[in-house]
Amino acid sequence: MVDKKIDIGKDNSGIANSGDNNTIQQTNHINKKYFLKASNLTIVGVGLLVVVGITLSVSNSGINRSFNNISDSNITIINNKGIDKDTFDSILTDYRTQIKELKTALKSANSSQSKAKIAQELAKLEQDYQIKQEEIAKAQKTLESLSFAITKKANEVYKKEGINKAIEYLQKIDESNQKKILDKSMQEFAQKYKLQAELLITKNRYDEAKEAYRQMTQYDRSFDALFEYALFLQKQNHFREAIKGYENLLDLELSQKDRAMTLNNLAVLYKAQNQHQEALKAYQEALSIRRDLAQANPSVYNPYVANILNNLANLYQVQNQNQKALQAYQEALTLYRDLAQANPSVYNPYVARTLNNLAVLYKAQNQNKEALQAYQEALNIRRDLAQTNPRAYELYYAKILIIGVDDLKQDKKGLEEAKKIVTQKHYRDVYLAQQLLKWIERIEKR
After folding, report:
1. N or C: which end of the chain has fewer CB within 10 A?
2. pLDDT in tens, 203-214
């Protein structure tokens, strides 16, 4: 059985720890790649500095050089130290003032040479003024569209105290604070793609959901996000991609419960790919971890131990290691019986499943008496469950009826009862029901 977050997998006591150095490097790479997508911080925090700080310094320097190059005129240099006003309007006012004075100087120039130089500088200043208008318009547009705390605050400072104070505010913000803001925006994008994927799944648009999940993991490199993507790939039978996803998770610094859950799912995939040795190694490590966890908290972790034991027994059975399979099934059954005493509605289905597996194993070893005994108990549990909740359990009841006829040579009336269940109208498009019907038809043709 594959571990899932909700029912058979990860409990709700917490999430994985941070990754190791390799993971941190990978996360940093992702953050850089999606920096502009995730936050306006770069655009505004640096943009204000570029547009208002660096560009103005260059332009002012150009203006001052222009005035200083006028040698034979009676123009007074009005702003030798650069623009010292502190609002966008003041910046443009200074340009307009200097343009006006240059025009006055042009009219009063005594020589054609002076007039030519002043006219040249006036044209340059008017060009700079146009560029500055465009730069300021862009900065204003950015400020008006801010959505993050730092840049909102910078806008407030600008409005109340001017550009220089806004620049000072941005320069004083330490990197840790910037990282917090960036992390928050990254999380918002991750949540957006997670929700998008989940909604697409409801419409059976699985290829699009896969891409949305992939995008989610670009913004969120946590265990939960990466595990969710790998589990989705596993459910969609993208086994190689899922294996790679789980294997990459094992390189992280995981909590013990998260590592065990990842190993279990990876082992299921290895088994499906006939990589039995890799599956065995993964199951054994997962079982060891879960045994340790169950010693400290048996009520929480014994279900996980039983689940691993059942999966491990299945693998042993495939490898014809029947004695090991028998021991694993029996230990799993003991745990499930104990759990079912406290919570029968939850764990009786697992008792029945394990008994069914034991019955098949006993039959393979010609232990017919034990096989029949395990089968009959499983059948009784399945019947009770089907009567209590038909839609949830009657197909599994039908399945065990078929197994009884096919493997344990039970009365063929069981086959008739199973066929009556699976041919009900509401199961017409249910995959399991159709597979069971095909199984019944194969038996009938013998």
Report:
1. C
2. 888 999 999 999
